[in-house]
Design a protein that fits this description.
The complex is a heterodimer of chains A (255) and B (282). In chain A, the strands form three sheets. Chain A has a six-stranded mixed β-sheet, with helices on both faces. In chain A, strands 2-1-4 form a three-stranded antiparallel β-sheet, with helices on one face. Chain A has ten helices and eleven strands. Chain A has 255 residues and is of the alpha/beta class. Chain A has a domain of 147 residues: Rossmann fold (3-Layer(aba) Sandwich), CATH 3.40.50.300. Helices cover 34% and strands 26% of the residues of chain A. Chain B is mainly α and 282 residues long. In chain B, helix 11 packs across helix 12 and helix 12 runs parallel beside helix 14. The longest helix of chain B is centred in the N-terminal third of the chain and has 26 residues. The chains are: A alpha/beta (255), B mainly alpha (282). Chains A and B meet through strand 5, helix 2 and helix 3 of A and helix 9, helix 10 and helix 13 of B.
Chain lengths: 255, 282
């Protein structure tokens, strides 16, 4: 099912986007246009401004100059880390249902479609058996699957995921790959920050290489030159056979 | 069983119990957000920040002849000062990199010092300062008690209406922003609700102890529930029940009324800690 994205209009467009925290720019004059229904890998070392780009896209930080615009307000955002008070009184189902609040508004009633989206999301992520458990009592992997189920239930036009693969256990990793594939199939726009160069090359339509300023943007086949990669990661790259390995990331542990 | 019934033979005790129970419902519900969002210090700051408003209202209405101050003026003075405290703290936070607790503390000591300075210029305030700090549950008029009940109903209606936005804001402000919620304005709305709870509560249990009703019942409920609506209902019930129980304690043991109510509320937390449901596997 194609979404309400007017033809020709980019799903996400940044125009000379600059964001400063204090004096240092976290993002410096970044411009790109992501066409609708494309999946984009956002690459860059820690501190490259990936999280800032997401925060600017959802309006949590203001652009110091320039702009970033999204074609739809129906955005699902999965932040990198969520420090929830363990006693926070919500069940797994409650958390997934929150994904519907955007479409339903403050007091709109849950309809059949909402309930179906919630139960599908629970099933997709394999957490049906946890539905009535308190979110704070779950393991790290189960919490991540719950938050991904929330994003899935949201059924958004644009999905923004900030390093979702960092520190995932194997079942969650597999579930997330299935989710990304299904969003891609359904023509959603997906922007994923990742450290995995191999997956970026293989699984995405476009790559966006960022290191405070934009290094490159385009299809992986033509964009992913050694020059671009080494400029993006500023010397943290090791070449192993045909693989490019992000050494800085590996030294810091697997996320 | 006389010791149970005796206290409530007197009308002023019944009125006080009703007002305190209404205050309990308000703080029990609003306090859930205070503990979920870690705003205990902010709430304490609001409670003390009302002093200058109370003092100015007292000075303007009490008159040199020693006539009673106007209670409505004091109420609005407290509300204005509380909202100023919330607004000033938010302003400091937005203009600087300081932590919220630092911003709250800076504004809080300023308001407290300002309040004491104003009090020192107003004759006859020394007596009323005691009731400001420790409350005067048995001095509540029936009009005030009715007002508390009406406000309790209004605040519950507001919390029901804002249930989804407030839940999202408390669970994850980033996701709330991504869903297009005006997080800044919702945060301010929450501060206004907490200010209202504090202003309504300090008349009954005092500025020093109003935090007890905002924190203890929700903390108890958090130990025993796993969903927010249940937590709010249990918290409100505990806080409301603390009012008559506290007054029975106060009447029979000749203890300060406001303090007795808060003692009962906190005892509930200690009791809940001993229950098996409070222990979580982790």
């Amino acid at each position: 099912m194609q979404r309400l994205t007017p033809t020709g209009q980019p799903a996400i467009a940044a125009q000379d986007l600059t964001v400063r925290y204090g004096r240092e720019p976290a993002l410096d004059q970044v411009s790109f246009e992501i066409p609708p229904s494309s999946t984009v890998a956002l690459l860059g070392p820690n501190g490259a401004g990936k999280t800032t780009l997401f925060r600017a896209a959802i309006g949590l930080v203001r652009a110091s100059s320039g702009s970033i615009r999204l074609v739809s307000r129906r955005i699902a955002f999965v932040p990198q880390r969520l420090d929830i008070e363990p006693s926070f009184p919500v069940t797994v189902t409650d958390v997934v249902r929150m994904g519907r609040y955007g479409d339903l508004g403050w007091v709109g009633r849950f309809g059949d479609r909402d309930r179906q989206l919630v139960s599908t999301a629970l099933r997709e992520l394999g957490i049906e058996h946890l539905a009535d458990r308190r979110f704070g009592d779950l393991s790290g992997g189960e919490r991540q699957r719950t938050l991904l189920a929330q994003a899935s239930a949201q059924d958004a036009d644009v999905f923004l995921l900030d390093e979702p693969f960092a520190g995932l256990d194997a079942p969650t990793h597999a579930a997330l790959r299935r989710l990304l594939a299904s969003w891609r199939e359904r023509g959603r726009t997906v922007l994923v920050a990742t450290h995995d160069l191999e997956s970026a090359r293989r699984d995405y339509d476009l790559v966006l290489c960022l290191n405070r300023r934009m290094i490159a943007f385009g299809p992986p086949a033509t964009t992913f030159t050694e020059e671009v990669v080494s400029e993006t990661f500023a010397g943290h790259i090791l070449r192993v056979g045909s693989l490019l390995v992000d050494t800085a990331h590996h030294h810091h542990g697997a996320g | 069983m006389d010791w149970l019934i005796d206290p409530f033979q007197a009308e002023f005790v019944r009125t006080g119990a009703l007002a305190a129970a209404a205050v309990g419902v308000i703080s029990g519900v609003v306090g859930c957000y205070v503990i979920l969002r870690g705003m205990a210090l902010m709430s304490d700051s609001l409670a003390h920040g009302v002093l200058p408003g109370v003092a100015i209202a007292f000075a303007l209405t009490a008159g040199a002849s020693g006539s009673d101050p106007d209670q409505t003026a004091i109420w609005f003075g407290a509300l204005a000062a509380g909202l100023f405290t919330a607004g000033a703290t938010n302003f400091v936070l937005r203009r600087s990199q300081v932590r919220e607790e630092t911003a709250a503390a800076v504004v809080f000591v300023f308001m407290l010092a300002l309040g004491v300075a104003i009090v020192s210029r107003v004759q006859g305030y020394s007596v009323d300062l005691t009731s400001f700090l420790f409350g005067d549950v048995l001095g509540v008029s029936s009009g005030d008690a009715t007002l508390s009940v009406v406000l309790a109903i209004a605040i519950i209606a507001l919390v029901v209406l804002l249930y989804r936005p407030f839940l999202l804001l408390s669970f994850d402000p980033q996701r709330a922003a991504a869903l297009g919620l005006p997080t800044e304005r919702l945060h301010l709305a929450m501060l206004v609700l907490i200010t209202l709870a504090v202003v309504i509560g300090f008349r009954v249990v005092g500025a020093l102890l109003v935090l007890g009703l905002l924190i203890a019942p929700p903390a108890t409920a958090a130990l025993l529930t796993k969903r927010l609506p249940a937590m709010m209902a249990l918290s409100a019930a505990i806080a409301a029940a603390s009012a008559p129980l506290g007054l029975i304690l106060s009447w029979n043991l000749d203890l300060a009324a406001g303090a007795s109510i808060v003692l009962v509320a906190v005892s509930g937390f200690v009791l809940a800690l001993a229950l098996p449901a409070a222990r979580r596997a982790s």
